[in-house]
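Quick start: load a record and inspect it. Here is CIA30 family protein:
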Amino acid sequence: MRFNNGHFGVFLILISNSGIADDLNKNDNTVIQERIELNGVDWQVINDGVMGGLSLGSTKFLDSTIVFSGDISIENNGGFSSVYRPVLGLSTQFDSIGLQVLGDGNLYQVRIRSQIEGYSLTYKVDFYASKNIEQYLTFKLSDFQASFRGRLIPGAPELKPENITHVGFLVTSKQPTSFALTVKGITFYLSSSLNE
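Running the structure step on this input writes:
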């Protein structure tokens, strides 16, 4: 599949425990946002077994967080594990996503699935999850890149919030490794509504 609406760039902002993180944690109406509920029910793990691999990943609901953990195997051309949960009915105003995570030193992808004119597309942004450090990360939706089996799709349409159906994470490695990512918060929001 190939589209003709231009290409994308990727960028990542690491934020401290103040500023944007404080704004996203407010419960008033100053920020146009929607927090995604972190429960132990809606998450679906997809390992590389769908392609013959032997990697194992799982999720655990612990103290209002989701822990995505397991082991990556490169046997049988494997090497990835992913997890998704449904997200429906997002406001068309949203232009950003904020994450609160506790990492393990591995490279991850934020993955967003989108339904566009009957086609399902997956968009991604990479981020490094610093080991044992709580991070607040924010991404513009326009910075997500459409991909299929690890390859970018040139000219794919820009990611729009009203088309989003799932959000999740993927970890991949060319070496056997263990992983554990603790997800403490996922918020879609309108960046211009943040307090100065």
